[in-house]
């Protein structure tokens, strides 16, 4: 039986910590509290950076030399991490689309109200400015 590989054990531990942070993000997003997301905290970002370096240094040859139990543990941790990451990405995309839709609706309403027919008056009406400043770089 091979001795435990400390690098692989570290990657598994980092993967599990990131998975827990993503699960907390999902709960925060489902409750409508994006400011309570753990992945925006500096500590979690440092863990993610460390995970990227550690996971990037693992190659297929080193995984083949692992004991079957450690390999299965790494595969399971990675699978859970990818599932939770996919769910968190979907929720973030939904929130982004919803907030951009709200901004677009407000900008459209402001533009419509500015361009409404004005009655004649003594002084000419000011030229309305477009509401595109409300849009994110005019790309929404």
Describe the protein:
- The chain is an all-alpha fold and 140 residues long.
- It has a domain at 6-91.
- It contains four helices and no strands.
- It has helices at residues 6-30, 42-56, 60-64, 68-114.
Portion of residues in helices? 55-70%
Shape: rod-shaped
**Number of beta strands:** 0
> Residue ranges: pLDDT <50 for 5 or more in a row?
none
Q: State the end-to-end distance.
A: 58 Å
Largest sheet: none
Percent in strands: under 5%
Mean pLDDT: 84
Write down the Rg.
25 Å
Pattern of helices and strands: HHHH
**DSSP helix count?**
4
By helix and strand content, what is the structural category?
Answer: mainly alpha
Which features does this protein show?
66% helix, 4 helices, single chain, 140 residues
Structure described in brief:
The protein is built from four helices and no strands.
What is this structure's SSE topology?
Elements: H1 6-30, H2 42-56, H3 60-64, H4 68-114
Helix pairs in contact: 1-2, 1-4
